[in-house]
Amino acid sequence: MRGQGAAYDARRTAILDAVFALVDTEGVAQVTIRRVADRAGVSVGRVQHYFKTKDELLEAASSAINDRGAERVAEHAAGTPGDTLRAILRVLIPRDEEDRRLFRVQQAFETYALTTPALGARVTQGYTELSALFALLLGGPDRTADGQELLATAVGLATLTLTDVITPAEAEVIVLRRVDQLLA
């Protein structure tokens, strides 16, 4: 059946990876279907087979980067709620060059979302769900403000590691100290 299978998924992923590379090095505004095709080594028609418009391409890329983050978070969910919370927060801190690249791309999409209502709604929903998960892991819905605080702290610390203000190890100490305080 057309459009199905591993080859289809591999080509689609390669196109999205080309978007990530362009966003990382040049920003969202520089993404065009032609530039993505060139970067992916495919024709413009091939890109348009998967994504009809630039907006559709950018929305798919933003969703894909969020999905990758969600997969990483899900991989670390185990043990007690506190253990799971600590593991998730560790994942949110960029540690290696690939983590840093993905965080830069995510931040670029979030900035782009400020002027793109549909994408902005997805960003808001993602952060709302993550802070709600943090609140749940802290003890329930009455911990919403604490969940929001942890989310803001983790995102802020991730940005500070990206700009080399602090190391990932220092960021981890800060966020885990706050988790321990909230769980005490």
TrEMBL record:
Residues 32-51 bind DNA. The keyword Transcription applies. It comes from the Bacteria. One of its GO terms (molecular function) is DNA-binding transcription factor activity. SUPFAM superfamilies: Homeodomain-like, Tetracyclin repressor-like, C-terminal domain. Pfam families: TetR_C_6, TetR_N. Residues 9-69 form the HTH tetR-type domain. Keywords: DNA-binding, Repressor, Transcription, Transcription regulation. InterPro entries: BetI_C, Homeodomain-like_sf, HTH-type_TetR-like_transc_reg, HTH_TetR, Tet_transcr_reg_TetR-rel_C_sf. This is AcrR family transcriptional regulator. It comes from Kribbella sandramycini. The lineage of its organism: Bacteria, Bacillati, Actinomycetota, Actinomycetes, Propionibacteriales.
